[in-house]
Amino acid sequence: MFVLPYLIVFVLFLIFPLIYGLWISLHNWNLISEDHQFNGLQNYFQILKPGTAEHDLFFHGLINTLKFVVFSVPFLLIFGLGLALLLNSLPDKVKGFFRTIFFIPYSISVSIVAVLWLWMLDTNSGLVNQMLSKFGLGAIPWLTSESLAWFSIVLATLWWTVGFNMVIFINALNDVSEEMYEAADIDGATSVDKFRFITLPTIKPVLLFVLVTSTIASFNVYGQPYLMTRGGPGDSTEVLLMGIVKQAFTLREIGSASAMAVLMTLIIICISIFQFIFLNRKEKVS
Q: What angle do CA 251, 252, 255 make, to 5 degrees?
């Protein structure tokens, strides 16, 4: 009885949509037609067949999404752990204050985050370029240059979500035994040695959790590129979810869009399994 409310919500909003989405992906399902013919795996074949519009849309978005994952996930891990180590070294009286300051952006919706950074980085009227102009420097095309557009999106994402990873790492660091650090001090271990041989092995399960969740979240990026660059310049920052939404609601092909979403989910699962196996294998070897 205690888990029943959660179970009902879980089935209605996760299990049922998942199964229904799989069912739709096996049909020629157009929004403006009431005739939804069953076509088996044809939607998947169209996506995987080179030269088709579905193939180009899916793999273009996938490549851009992989770029964002590669650009963002390492920074989310490194800065999250770095902030956690920094805050843990502060006096107890100010730890809570700075922890709150860094975590606050995570409580803001993606639309507000995108508008804030768009306001700051706009080429013509952005706050950053206005400040640069006061020093006699020219405007920088933060959102209209491909490389700078990716930098801006990753920067906004890092500012927005790194506080969540920081809090998780802080909790993990607090579970590291102080006796191990004291024993290492007696043996003359340096701070680097203690971090490498005590801290990292102890928090490795949490590190794996943060790595997997950050990768999944980065794969599901949508709001930042959509609101900040509209997929531009050109379509250089058009990520996979933007392509799926375009296929579903602009081209009205729900069947192939659902197939794209299923393939995206399978790719995320495979990458998560690889990360889990790789880290555990490395741990066994060491």
A: 115
Nearest-CA neighbor of 162 among 201, 124, 111, 213? 213
Two tokens at 17?
């949509």
- Given this model, what pLDDT does residue 172 score? 94
Whether residue 233 is preceded by a cis peptide bond, meaning omega within 30 degrees of 0, is yes
* Residue-level pLDDT at 233: 92
**Among all chains, which residue has been given the structure tokens 């092909």?**
253
Q: Distance (Å, rounded) from C-alpha 210 to C-alpha 241?
A: 22
Alpha-carbon separation of residue 253 from 25, 73, 226, 230, 267 (angstroms):
10, 32, 20, 21, 21
- Side-chain half-sphere CA neighbours of 61 within 13 A: 29
Work out whether the CA dihedral 176, 178, 179, 185 comes out positive or negative. Answer: positive
Length of the chain as a residue count:
286
Provide the CB-side half-sphere exposure for 257 (13 A, CA).
Answer: 18
d(CA 173, CA 190): 18
Q: What is residue 52's DSSP assignment?
A: S
- Locate tokens 């979500």: which residue? 161
- Give me the phi and psi of 37, to 5 degrees please: -80, 140
Residue 250 contacts residue 32 (beta carbons within 8 Å): no
Return the CATH superfamily for domain 56-285: MetI-like (1.10.3720.10)
H-assigned helices in 37-109: 42-48, 53-88, 92-103
123: DSSP letter = T
Residues 6+ apart with CB under 8 A from 229: 143, 149, 152, 153, 237
pLDDT of residue 282: 57
pTM reported for the whole predicted model: 0.91
Helix axes 127-134, 110-121, angle to 10 degrees: 20
Task: Write out residues in the chain with pLDDT < 70, as ranges.
Answer: 282-286
Residues 98 and 167: beta-carbon distance below 8 Å? no
